[in-house]
């Protein structure tokens, strides 16, 4: 199982960072706005998956998630732009 870190852009332009084995499935759960969606993203639809990074172990993914969450919004935007280019 390969764990990944991902960033979702909410309708209010805020960014949510999370980890998952199956990012597409997890993003679908967030979009559903149901009980499996993160509380942060509820009511902030539409959502857009803007960044993914496959890492390996859950521990590695969680460490990268923590590192990303410590970044300023500007630095997170730079990280997203680097992946797009």
The Cα radius of gyration reads 12 Å
CATH-defined fold name: GIY-YIG endonuclease
The portion of residues assigned to helices is: 40-55%
At the first level of CATH, the class is Alpha Beta
Q: By helix and strand content, what is the structural category?
A: alpha+beta
Strand residue content: 25-35%
Helices, by number, come to: 3
Task: Please describe the biggest sheet, giving its number of strands, its sense, and whether it closes into a barrel.
Answer: 3 strands, antiparallel
Number of strands: 3
Amino-to-carboxy terminus distance: 27 Å
Pfam families: GIY-YIG
Protein name: GIY-YIG nuclease family protein
InterPro entries: GIY-YIG_endonuc, GIY-YIG_endonuc_sf, UPF0213_domain
Domain GIY-YIG: 1-78
Can you characterise this structure?
By secondary structure, this protein is of the alpha+beta class. The chain has one domain (3-79): 3-Layer(aba) Sandwich (GIY-YIG endonuclease), CATH 3.40.1440. Helix content is 41%, strand content 26%. It is built from three helices and three strands. The chain has helices at residues 23-32, 58-70, 73-84, and strands at residues 3-9, 15-20, 48-56. A three-stranded antiparallel sheet has the order 2-1-3, with helices on both faces.
Task: Supply database-style keywords.
single chain, 85 residues, alpha+beta, three-stranded antiparallel β-sheet, 3 helices, 3 strands
């Amino acid at each position: 199982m390969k764990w990944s870190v991902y960033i979702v852009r909410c309708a209010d332009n805020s960014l949510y960072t999370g980890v998952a084995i199956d990012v597409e499935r997890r993003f679908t759960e967030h979009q559903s706005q149901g009980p499996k969606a993160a509380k942060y993203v509820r009511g902030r639809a539409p959502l857009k998956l803007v960044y993914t990074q496959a890492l390996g172990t859950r521990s590695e993914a969680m460490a990268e998630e923590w590192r990303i969450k410590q970044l300023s919004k500007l630095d997170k935007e730079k990280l997203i732009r680097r992946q797009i280019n």
